[in-house]
């Protein structure tokens, strides 16, 4: 699970087995509190979540949006 970046104890990661070309680039967030998945385009949105509060998820959407280009670059480097 490559870690793209960390924020407030949350790991933003890719699952190595998810390089399905039919699925657009996305990032997972994991911590002891919960898990979430974010689509990156056309805008950052929550694809699914469990355990995080609405406030945490809203903050993570903003953080992912700030790191979107970095995440997409890492996605393409990792999955080709």
Helix content: 25-40%
Distance between the termini: 16 Å
Q: Unreliable runs, pLDDT <50, ≥5 residues?
A: none
Largest sheet: 5 strands, antiparallel
Mean of all residue-level pLDDT scores:
90
- Please indicate the count of domains: 1
Q: Mind explaining what this structure looks like?
A:
The chain has 80 residues and is of the alpha+beta class. The chain has one domain. It is built from one helix and five strands. A five-stranded antiparallel sheet has the order 1-2-3-4-5, covered by helices on one side. β3 and β4 form a beta hairpin. The mean pLDDT is 90.
For this entry, give a set of tags.
globular; 80 residues; five-stranded antiparallel β-sheet
Question: What's the SSE blueprint?
Answer:
Elements: E1 3-7, E2 10-13, E3 26-30, E4 35-39, E5 45-50, H1 54-79
Antiparallel strand pairs: 1-2, 2-3, 3-4, 4-5
């Amino acid at each position: 699970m490559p870690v793209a970046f960390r924020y407030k104890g949350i790991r933003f990661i890719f699952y190595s087995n998810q390089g399905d070309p039919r699925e657009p680039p996305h990032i997972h967030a994991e911590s002891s509190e919960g898990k979430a998945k974010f689509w990156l385009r056309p805008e950052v949105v929550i694809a699914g979540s469990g355990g995080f509060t609405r406030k945490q998820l809203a903050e993570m959407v903003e953080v992912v949006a700030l790191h979107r280009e970095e995440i997409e670059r890492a996605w393409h480097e990792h999955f080709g």
